[in-house]
Amino acid sequence: MFMLKNPPNENISNHSTVSVDDQDPGYLLQQRLELVEDLWKTVLKSECPPDQTERLLRLKQLSDPSNSKQDNSSQAIVQLITEMDLAEAISAARAFSLYFQLVNILEQRIEEDSYLNSMKKENLENSNYKIDPFAPALASQTAPATFRQLFERLRRLNVPPAQLDALMREMDIRLVFTAHPTEIVRHTVRHKQRRVATLLQQLQSNNSISEAEKEIFRLQLEEEIRLWWRTDELHQFKPTVLDEVDYALHYFQQVLFDAMPQLRRRLTTALASSYPDVEIPNEAFCTFGSWVGSDRDGNPSVTPEITWRTACYQRQLMLDRYLATVQELRDQLSISMQWSQVSSPLLESLEMDRVRFPEVYEERAARYRLEPYRLKLSYTLERLRLTQLRNKQLADAGWQFSPEGKPLISTNNSFDEFLHYRSVDEFKNELELIRNSLVSTDLTCEPLDTLLNQVHIFGFSLASLDIRQESTRHSDALDELTRYLDLPKSYGEMDEESRVTWLMKELQTRRPLIPPALEWSKSTQETISVFHMLHRLQKEFGTRICRSYVISMSHTASDLLEVLLLAKESGLIDPALGSADFLVVPLFETVEDLQRAPSVMESLLQTDVYRELLPRVGEKIQPLQELMLGYSDSNKDSGFLSSNWEIHKAQIALQDLASRQGIALRIFHGRGGSVGRGGGPAYQAILAQPSGTIQGRIKITEQGEVLASKYSLPELALYNLETVTTAVLQNSLVTNKLDATPNWNELMTRLAARSREHYRALVHDNPELVQFFQVVTPIEEISKLQISSRPARRKSGAKDLSSLRAIPWVFGWTQSRFLLPSWFGVGTALATELKTDPDQMEMLRMLNQRWPFFRMLISKVEMTLSKVDLEVAHHYMVSLGGDDNRDAFARIFEIISSEYSLTKKLILEITDKSKLLSADPALQLSVNLRNRTIVPLGFLQVALLKRLRDQNRQPPISEDLSVDASQSSRTYSRSELLRGALLTINGIAAGMRNTG
Length: 996
What we know:
The chain is mainly alpha-helical. Strand 7 (616-617) and strand 8 form a beta hairpin.
């Protein structure tokens, strides 16, 4: 049985040890790498001077994994770099960045090919499909399963069809695309990469092609890569929020629109094979959300107007897509009434359309007199066109224009002023009318079914926009309001109990609280305007466009009630009627907030006012509460082990609370791409969630470079979507009591506490750590990358740790090869436990084998440790630290180095291995390849950062990386040096395949 893993915790393609047609991924990587390296060398020779090319190839040779044991290779690399001037150093940075991006494309192609092979095998075996007798028990399986594999194994475990059917009806998987500052590759370069990926597929396909065709593809590849080489990798300007919107929607246009209907077909086929009596789930069992254009936490560029324009842009994209598809359907459905029956409801609708659209009738009736489907679709096209026109007018007019009682589209027809589609349901009903008519005459139309599937999933809105704002913005607005109203005590002066009492009272009164047409401070006006814009948005686009309001840094019950009160004042909710299609979603981020979350939510769920405002879901019509758990800030606050354990415990406590209260719970996991921000293989991460806490519902952020690694190729996207779905099904159906084992929980609590203590002693309690991080990592230069509309820090000008966002925190440590947030503290925690009781090693090994949660922790740490390079990290410290910091920095480095050695030693003991990743040779090969080949970029970055930072302390001087300034023939400006440093950041990010 072939099993393929998700891109692992650091987004390096992870592969199984089982071969694909007798060729495992490691073999394929070695085989195909020859072509990529040959192309890379050919392009360098054609684009760079001969002596420069020779030095670049020498750098590559010195950093080759096969030469890793060569004595003094690092010194030789440094020596070569010192012989380069700035122009050549920049070329070297670009060359190695290009190399890693080509390798990334190669690994994505291998992963996609592997998935396609597994699908072919299943189709060939079909009715004779057999389960691998050596596969592990489903409860302890870690390798991702396809739909076919999972359903067959569930059937053999005697999982009742009724149980699976009930779960299918409740399935609610939501993948939320975000625009955090982690994606550093330009849109233009992504197009080049996709073109290269396509050509590689054609050249390396299994289909027999002639030598002449191979040569043509080879020459096209060379040409495409040369064009790529001559394209600037860096953004020329800081992207706007709408640029980010365009970038995120690119994946929908290129891949996901077509992938989602295929996902449902694969699910349908697999169900029919193993569970023929189970109903096919709602087409929208997996949907999408987006923070791009709506996440305003710390991003002043996301205004109400921007969110409004984002919604209009998304609807425009969908309408364009539907117009093209309906046009194709009209061409295809040429059925004549002379040769086929047509349903009465369809004929009746044509009579209604004739009255409403006389112009269309006059234009099309003669041509389509006997072709009712074509005539009906002509009316549909006209309504889509009018909807498109209205959408453009709304986008141009802005959110504050309210066309109450006035149609934006003028028409000469008095029958109905609303000729456009007022909701996606109207469009869907017309398509279903056509399908029902076809079915009644024993006809099917796959393109129509595909379109209906897309309409179910994407609607007119494409992806639901989640609003996110920091909690103090709401309390500050209410404080200003209550001061204006001259209350006996302003909101800011109230304690938590008084706030909750006052908020509950205001929620239940019909009296408006906020006076109209009053000038507020800029911050308060912005906060209030967001809610009014949301009301307009839901009224025009339907509630589907925006249902969730995420409150970052949620601490107390009042944080949620504040948002409900502001929503009530804008007309979004009506507590008196108990009506709301609006979810207030607390985001619990720090360890203290995670620990407090169950009591906060219990205090709210026990009140009728709050419960009545929760939307109802499922066949049981239960109130739905969504909660978001933050991996990034809890990790930055307390370290990897403590963060993961507190999130794990919080989920169990919150699900217990939801069960007692009769509430349906949906956990929103705020995962990033890196281990330090909750990243990792999605399949294993979902299986590691506490048993019984998913129940078919989950929401996950997909951030930054994760979008490119998962959704840039069609089959790769399908693979990721399928494995996420199977993981949710498996976790929901195959339950266990492992998470409730008392002595395991006690052990984890001790480990988490000791890990947190050691992490905080270094990161928060050591006064020299912030300076170490600022100097030894390229954090300041990272903040100058034109990669995001959001600032790197929450507070401009602040240099303290608390103001730094979790993403650049991880980014900086990754660039300098420390990767500290993903492992520091684990070794000390394990060692302390073993010192108390050495026999605990057997317990730890057993947990790694049996407990999915613990196994996930260990595997993530193992992956991260395999990518740490303390030799390179030490070079950063020595070269950038300076004499003033030497002793202090050396002490910090010694703490880090000792912890690394201890952690690695104990992880190998727990996993019973001699080398990291030895259980997965293909992954080990990939990581080793990157670890060595990336070394020149690190040394280049250090050299450029050193020169750049020296420039900050004096006027521009002659800059030459080879000799002293007096011998240099050219003076380089600070901007040129910064450009060089930023190019190395690009290259290292490509090599590490995670940027934060």
